[in-house]
Structures are given as C-alpha cells and as structure tokens.
Amino acid sequence: MKINRTAPDGDRAAPPADFRERYDVAVLGGTMAGGLLAAVLARQGVRVLVVPGAEDRSEPSGETTVPYTAEVFLLLAKRFDIPEIAAFGLFPDLPADVRRDSGVKKSLGFLHHRVGQRQNPEESIQFNVPGEHAEWHLERRTVDAYTLRIAHRYGAAILPHGVHATDAWTEEDGARIETTDGHVWKARYLVDVSGPGSFLVARNGGDDPEPRLSLRSRVIATHMTGVIPFEDVRPVTEYPKATAWSEGTVHHLFDGGWIQLVRFDNHPGGANPATGVTLSLDPDRWGHLPDDPEKAFRTVVEQFPDLDKQFASATAVRPWTNAPLWQRTAARTYGDRWFALERTASRNDLFLSRDVTMATEVVHALAGVLVPAVRRDDFSVAPFAKVAAFQDELAAFNDRWLACARTAARDFQLYNAFSRVWLLWQILADLSLKRARLDCESSAGRDWSAVERFELGGIWFHVPEGLRGVIDRSLRTIERVGSGDLRPSPAAESIFAELRREKFIPPLYAFGDPDARVYHFTIPKRLKMLWWVKTAAPADFRRLLTRDNVTSVTSASSR
C-alpha cells in the first residue's frame, strides 16, 4: 500500500509504509541515469524503488547533447515504449520547466587561445546545427528531477525529498539500503548511480589507486552570471560566416586545457541567467596554480586577454567544484546482485558531449539484461559482466578521444584536424544507429540484436566500412604527437590527407580542407549530397539513405 504523500519538488510519492516490502530492483541515486533506468524498468512491469543519494545534483552541470545523443534517447524510448524519453532528443518537446532552466545548442564552437595574445579568428571552428535538430544544454538539477517524475509516472516508488541512503550492501537473497529515516529497504537487485561516494564500491575494493584512464585533469567548475557572450567580446563579423557563439556550446582551447561554456538563457523563454563554466587543466602543465578554485580560475583566464574580458564581471552563483584529479575508476563495477552504473563506475572529463550520451548507452544495455533477469528470477552474474565490460569499453573509447583532444589542443592546426575526425564519427554514428534502430523496429518480433553488438566496443552497431580505421589511425597519429614521436604540423597534414582520400567520406563535407572551418548546410548543398549518394557513395553508406533516413542524413552532414 502506498502512502498518499507528495514530495516537495513535484509529483513524487513515497514508497509503501511497510519498509520490509521487497522490490525487484532498487536504484541508488536520483540522477538522470537512475531516473531513466527506473522509468524503463517500471514501464516493463518491474517493481522499482529509487533511493536518492546524498551527493545527487552536486556535481558541475555542463552537459550537452549532439545528434547522436538524441538517437540514443530515441532508441531507449522506442525499444521500451516511453515517449517522454524521445523528447530528450528534441528540446521543444520537453516540459516548460526543463526548457526554462536549460539552454539551446545551435552550434559547437572551438576558439584557440595563446598566452598574452588576443584570439586569432583564423584559429576558430564552428559547426552549426541545422534547424530541424534541437540540441540543448542540460541544467542537470532540473533534468534529474524530471527523469524521476517520469519514473514515478510509470510506477516507480521514489523516496521523499530529504531522505537519502546512509549505507547499502548485498546479501544472499538480494540487496539492502539503509536510509536516513531509519528504514532498511529490500530489493532483489541493486543498481548504484550514487557516484564517487558509493557504499557498494567502498565495500568491494573502493577506487583504483590510479584510474584506468589516460587523461588526467584538474577540474574547476561552477555556474556563473555575468559571463559576457563572446560575440560581445569580439564582434562576430571578425569570424566570417560564423553565428553568435553564445547560441551554442563554446570551448576555449589552450595549451594544457580548455574552458567549456554552456549558457542556459540563450533562447526565448529561457529564465535561467547562469552559464555552466567548466575549466579542465593538465595538472603537469598547470600545477603551479593556487589551491583555491576561484583564484586558480582567475589566474588562468587573466593570461588570455579575451577570456579576461569575457569573465571580468562574472560571479559564481553555485559553490565551486575543485578536484585536483577529476578522473576515477572503481576497482569493481558489478557483483552478485549489484551493478555500478555511470559515474559510480568511472568519471572523466565532460568535454565533447559524451557524459550524457554514455550514461544513456549504458542504461540501454543494462535494461536489456535486467528486465529479463527479473522476469526469470535469475540474476546470474554472467550477463551483467558483459554489460560491465561494455561500460568499460565505452569509458576507454571516450578516454582515448579526450586524451587526444588534450594533445591536439596544444596546436590549432592539429585540433582542426582532430575535430573533423570527431565530427565524422558523430555524424555516421547518428545515421548508423538510426538505421539499426529502424531495422530492429521493422524486424519480425522486433529483434533488437542489431543494437546489442556490445562486443564491438565504443561503436556498438554496424557503421560504414572504413570509419573505424580512420578513427584508429587518426588517434594513433595524435598519440604519436603526445609521445613526442611526431610534430603537430605533419600529424595534422597526415590526417587531412586521409580525410581527402577516403571514398566513404562525402566530398561535400570538405573534412579534408583545413580552411573549411565554419559548417553550414544549405538546401543546394543538401541536393548535392543526395546526388553524391545516388551516384558515387559506397553501398553501405547509400543504405543509410533510405526513405526513413534521408532527412536525417542530409541534415546531419551539415555539422
């Protein structure tokens, strides 16, 4: 029997008064990943309890989406019949409160800076998002709360606001979670998304002494008001063909780090005046900075004249996050009747819009195993071990991109080449996952095996032949720069040359042209794209352009 009680922050009901009642799955942590998983499980008839964690909504909010993220959301929505999740990929379809607090992302911009010099417009890149896409900046506190509302709507029990876990463990017959109100909740299986302070991880070896990741970052983050739009620092007319930087995600790059800016008030109806500000630094290159996060931040921006001007009147409106080493990995991420998901398992830089994407990818993989396990009452470890291995592969794939981005940020020419390979991957991943999803939906019995190729690692579905090789060779080239075996200039030239040679890359992308630094996709360009597909594209690329996929293909190729 449920208590008819509403929590202070929305339509969340308390769980049954009898704390001895047993659930199928308990989700520890009220983050977006936990809310999405709880919604999926509840929609499939699983009895779910969500127990908030003490650290929920405390990490920096600077996450963004790309079109591939939207396709992962759509896959989750279609496979598990939750239309609300599909809206996460289309900003106008979100509830008013989520749109009010979050921002839009009309472009992805990179501006390279040199110490003591004004930013050179020739060292900038901007990928503009076509109008039919609706990417966005997530204000995580609002978004996390909304995912819990969705989960409750489908039947998940949510502990009231202010009650959170004080311990968690597993026993032979299932899991136990102790909460601040003195109750001990029972479930047959426990998924932990509580983050770095996980009780389960602490009981199972804790964190690795050295993270199993290549990138090392000191991360300083907050929300600030008064951040001047960069187009008011430097007129956008100095950047031919570029649009207003503040209408999208802005990355200020420099040797040894970057600052990522996500505005939340950059659209009509946006009522959140803050900007998410995340500074990521190589500890070896910037190890001399003050321990105080605000002083360290100011010390960095003062070295770059345009950044100093952009932040001259900015004021933090949330506590600073200051992690001397942001990266971490858990020694164990699964066991008998438990699984550590998302930031509980590992944590890496928020750069390049991968945090939200990876969380949703792993929710999809775990739900595909957990739902049948509940129905069969068989929680054998082996299927969950495969999902854990996939999560590790995603983390390693993401880490490789991030480590190469850090190396490439030393030199604009190299970053210019790196960004094209990254964009090619994003475009073709988006299109290929959509093709795989459509094939699954139209298959006999809705066979989802085409989107469960987790043994393939970071790209877990079929993509056009040649893509994996281009990615691997390009990243290996950048890794040689990082090890000192190759200079940035010849490395960049090598990557651009390969992008010009590969037959599966549409020439209209101009990815092999270092001077094509601003991407727009006009109607004439779309028509040329379709002509190339019909007359010259390889067969596996042409297959992406079926009747159901043609609009997405032509629009995705603009970025």
Give the tags.
559 residues; alpha/beta; nine-stranded mixed β-sheet; eight-stranded mixed β-sheet; disordered C terminus
Protein model, in words:
This protein is an alpha/beta fold and 559 residues long. The protein contains 17 helices and 21 strands. Strands 4, 5, 11, 12, 13, 14, 15, 16 and 21 form a 9-stranded mixed beta sheet that branches. Strands 1, 2, 7, 8, 9, 10, 18 and 19 form an 8-stranded mixed beta sheet that branches. Helix 2 (67-80) packs parallel to helix 10, helix 2 packs parallel to helix 12 and helix 10 (355-376) packs antiparallel against helix 11 (381-408). It is globular, with a radius of gyration of 23 Å. It starts with 21 loop residues before the first strand and ends with a helix. Residues 1-20 and 550-559 have low confidence and may be disordered.
Concise overview:
The chain has helices at 32-43, 67-80, 83-86, 96-101, 140-153, 199-203, 230-233, 293-301, 305-310, 355-376, 381-408, 412-442, 467-482, 488-501, 523-535, 539-542, 550-556; strands at 22-28, 48-51, 103-105, 107-112, 124-128, 135-137, 157-158, 165-171, 174-179, 184-192, 218-225, 249-254, 257-263, 275-281, 315-316, 321-323, 328-329, 334-335, 338-340, 346-347, 518-519. It has 559 residues and is α/β, with parallel strands linked by helices. The longest helix is centred in the C-terminal third of the chain and has 31 residues, at 412-442.
